[in-house]
Each structure stands twice: as C-alpha cells, then as structure tokens.
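Reopening this one. Same input as before:
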Amino acid sequence: MRPFASHPDELISASLTGELTGEERRQLDTHLAQCPECRATLAAFGAQRELLAGLPQPPAPRDLGARVRAGIESGRLGRPWWQRPGGLLAGVASLATVAAAALLVIVLTNGTNGPNIGRQTPSPTPSASPASVEPSASATPSEAPSVTPAALPLGVQPGDLLYAQLTGPYDGLALAVVDNQSGESVSIADPAGSQYGEVTRAALSPDSRLLAFTTETGLKGTWRIFVADLSTGATRQLAETLPVAFGRRLAWSPDGRYLAFTVAPDTGGGASDVWLYDRTTGTASQLTHQGNAYFASWAPVGPGDNEQLWVSLAEADPVSQLAQFPVSGGIPATDPLAGETTTVAGVFVPLVSPDGAHVLYWSGTLASDGDSGWTFSRGGLPQLAAYDPTASSWSGTPLFSDLVVGPNGGAFSSGELSWAGNSDAYAVWAAAWTGTPEGAGYPDVNAVYVGRVSTGSLSLASALHLGDMTSSDGNALSVAAVTLAPDGGQAAVTLAVPRPGDLSAPASYLRVATTAIGAGAPVDVGSGGASPPPWSGPAVFVGP
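Same output, byte for byte:
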C-alpha cells in the first residue's frame, strides 16, 4: 500500500462525517498507525466538532454529500486545503489543534479507572494510535503529542480488559461489552432475532473497533459467529456452525481487514471449511472447498504483499498448508489451496506467534467422529517449534516435559492453544487426556497451563492458580475460554457454572489470574458479587 505523500487532512475530516469508502478508511487507518501528527489532528478535529456542535447551524445543502463524494472520486483531493470539500473543517480545526489536543489529554487522563487488571502502569498520556503501533522513527520533537483518537470506542487503552456480559432471564438475555478499566459499555444488538446464548470465543480487531464473537444457540447446540461495532453496538451475523474440536478459533488478519474462522455445517457428516469476513465490503464467504479444512492461524504478511494463513486438512495423518492471496485483492473467488502451496506434514492447526518466530501445533493420528469432528485417536500432543514457512516439516518439542505417550493411545484427544502478545508466553487449556493420569488429576481438562518459550516446557507446576473451582451448589466449574495479557503476566479465564436446568440463564465467573508460579489469589471481574453471577466472558486484552 502506497503511503500518503503528505498529511491527508481531507480524509481525516471526511472520516468524521462518514464520507469515506471502505478502502479509504483502511488506507487512513494504516497511515494513522504510523503518523503521530495525523493522530493528533484527528483528535483535534473531533474535539473541534464537539465544540461546534453546540452552535446554531444552518441546514447543509442537499447536494453536499454528493459533491464531497464526487470530489473524492474525481481525484481533486490534491487541491489546496481551502479548495477541498472538507477544507473548511480542516482549516478551522488546524488552528485549534494544539489547544484541542491539550484539552483532550486533560479529559482523558481524569477518566474513571477500574481495578489494576490489564494495564501495566498508570498512563498519563493516552495511547498512540488506533492500530496500537509505535510512532514512526521519523517523528521529531516539534510534532504534536500522540493521543488516543477521539472516535476510539469505550475509552480503550493498551492493556485494557474488555469482556462480554449476558444479563437477565433465559428468555430475555441482553449482551453488552464492557471495558473493565474505563467502566464504559456498549449494548450489542442481535440481528438474528433470537436470543444470545453463552459467549464462547472473542477476537478484537487490531484497531480495537470491532469484536468478533461466538454464542451458543440454545438447545440446538450450534454456534453463531458475529461481528459487532464497539462504537454503536451494530452487529452482523456471519455464519452458524457446529462447535467441533479444533474448529473454534477465530482471528483477525495482521492488518485487521479479514476475520478467519471454521464453519462445520449442521447438516452432518463432519464436513468443515474455512471462511473469511472482509470488513471493507461487509461480506463473509467460503475460502476453502476441501470438506475437511480447519482455520489454524494467520502468519505475518509475506513476500509480494500477500496475506498468509495456515489451513489444516484433517485426515489420519494431518497436513497443514499455507494459503496466500494479495492483501488488497479481497477474498479469493477460487480455493487458494488448489494451487501450489507450502505443505507441512504431521502438523495440525499450527498457531504462529505474533512475531513470526515460533509456532505451536498439534501432532498425532486423527480420527473422525462424524458430527463431532476430528480428534486425536493416538499420540496427540501439543508441540513447539521454530517457525519456518518454507520447510516441509518442523522439528517440534513436546510442550509437556513430564507426560509420556502410552503404547495404547494415552495422549490428548483435543485441546486449545493461545499465545500472548509478547510471543513468549503461551497457554494450553481444555486439553482432554485419554491415558492414565501422570499425577493426581494431572493433566486436568479444567486446568490452564501457562509456559514461556524462554523458560522451558510445561509441567504439573505450570497450572494456574484459579481459586475455588466449584459452584455454589458444589458442581465443578469448567474452563470455557482463556486469553493471555499482551505481556503474558495475566490470564483471563471464563469459568462456566453448570446450569441447573435447560431454561435457566447461563452463568460464569471471569477470573483474572497472575501467571507467575506462586502468585496470589485471582480476581473475579464482572460478577458484582451476585450469586449466581451473570455470564461474563470471554475477555480480550487490548494490544500494545
């Protein structure tokens, strides 16, 4: 993507009035991620609009929008600012940039803060950019200070903990997303016209504006996949799927344009394929047509400015393939696995670290269980390897140092893997061990094991201290979702409370635990002391 030749004041101005196309919005977001001066301009424009909003305003000409769009489409954006459609707003706001930016800093730094969860240290100067990227190395001391864009939803800052919360009776559940630090929340509409169920997975876009999430669908047992705008609560349903093992991941591409996920239709037979949602067009469509394909993870953008994502093919001896397509080309109309691809044998659902240096994956022999999907029948173990996208095989090391695969199939049948944003800490959870336990209840499907690339393998001692794991009626809580903080120092764990009946409202604890061995008691978030609690979680941490 070509950088702007100069600061695009006219696009910044138009972004506040909803006049940008999807591609222009994407270009502007990318530029803002690298330009602190334009981020300050955006904040000043927003503050100036709020000041001007209280003044009497004559009605705008009926054709104003058409004239602005015509100017953008005709390429007249290169004119001096006073000749551009948004030039008046840009000119007025430019005169007040320093004052408005200072006012915005004062307002933001005096906001309400929640418990010290997520944010590592107090932050007197708000975060730098909508895409959470460090300022450009070319920045000079004379440039305006870096501030959080006025339009960023829920007052989020790097390190904040956002979580979903369901409240109300079973036949009237309401869903909201809450920022634990700012205390702000947004109600999430349900466009499908039927009530939400337990929220089971969540993924925050890199610019912190969109939240993808899945919910269970009542007694039907399927999962619905949604994308919600955190500024407005507007929601789009993307797909409905059976929640098969290893098919529950959803993740945004590094540039935030695409969301990838697996769809296993509820028509039966265990079929599955990878789908993509393109936020610039608002459409979701099927990417692969293999019938046994699972989304694994995104990789860093590759040579030739290509999006790269790993897709795994489930069969007795699984393989993973690297699908590629141009960043700006949209969702491919043809299956990217049909052409030449990088194939790695013996690797299932690889999860590439954010920095592209390492990869977590599963190995073993798979077997299909019809509608339940594919699980390991023999030798299932999570592995860690150096990431090499050009190799046909990876030399992995088992994550658990004290587990021995038994001769009769003792191993994991399934499980979940997560990386922290620092690409060092990782977690293994919901891991179902089929062999003889190696210790008292070890490994435990309701434990969360956290390790680090820099410190070695997992063991019994790697289990997080999650506190009391029983509900008020004595039933065991179950791990429903796990997210690691960007620095790996905390884990937000959703612990589901068993339902006393099919028509009872779902309940869970959202428990934030410190990952250091021997850490203190975890902290419950969002329950408000209610018994039973509302359904809180899963959580996502805002990246740095």
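So the earlier flakiness isn't reproducible anymore. For the record, The longest helix spans residues 36-53.
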